[in-house]
Amino acid sequence: MPALPPYIIEPIWQQFEALLPERRTDHPLGCHRSRIPERVIFEKLVQVLVFGCAYQRIADASCSESTLRRRRDGWIELGLMERLKEICLEAYDRLIGLELSEVAVDGCVTKAPCGGEKAGISPVDRGKRAIKRSMAVDAKGIPLGAVSAPANRHDSPLLVPTLQAASEVLGALPEEASVHLDRGYDSRLTRERLAELGLRWEISGKGKPAPFWATNRWSSGRTRGTTPTRSLCGARSGWGR
After folding, report:
1. Which of 42, 71, 97, 219 is most open to solvent, judged by the fewest CB atoms within 10 Å of its CB?
2. Higher model confidence: residue 221 or residue 97?
3. What is the Cα 114 distance to its own chain's centre?
C-alpha cells in the first residue's frame, strides 16, 4: 500500500531529486557494492512519516534500517530536508493557502510505553505512561503548531504555548481570528489570555450540549485521526529525526 498517491509523491520526489548533490565514486577497483537508489530511500522515509511506524518495520530486503537512518542523517546535514520543507510549504501557500480566520485548538492523550521526559500518568488509561499533545489547526485541519506535556496536565494551560508554537512558524495570527475550543477551556482566564492576544473565541459552555458539528473545533480531531465521540477538537510539521 503506497504511503502517498503517485500524483503527490512524484512532484515531491522531482523537487527533492533536483536538490541532491552529484555523487562521485573513486574506488580504486570500481567494485564496491552498488548504492541503494535514492528513490528507494526517499519512499521509505515517506512511509515512516505517513504511517508513523518504526524504521525496522519499514526496512526489508531492498534496504536495511541502518541504511535508512544513515542516508536520512546525511540529507539532514546537507540541509536537503529543510529546503524540501520550504518548497512544499511555498507550493501549498501558492496553490491552496491557509485559512487562518478560524483556528481550532485542543489536546489528545497518546501512549508513551517507553516513558520520556514529557511522559506522565494517563488519566484515561489506567494510569499508564502517556503524553498529551496540544495542537492548533486552521479551518481545513492543517496543523499549525503543537506542544507536548505530561498526560495528566489540563488542556487550558497549554493554549497559549500552542498558539505561540503556531506563531513561530507563521508569524502573528490575523487580527480578530476566531479560536474554537471545547468546554474544557471554558474559563475567565482563557478568555483573558485570548483577549491579550487580540483573538476572538468560540468556546462550548460547561453543562450545555455540544455536538461535534456545532463549531469548527471538529477539524483538529479529524487531523489527529481521533473520533468525535472521544475527542471533539483539534508544522505544519516538517521532516525530523
Report:
1. 97
2. 97
3. 21
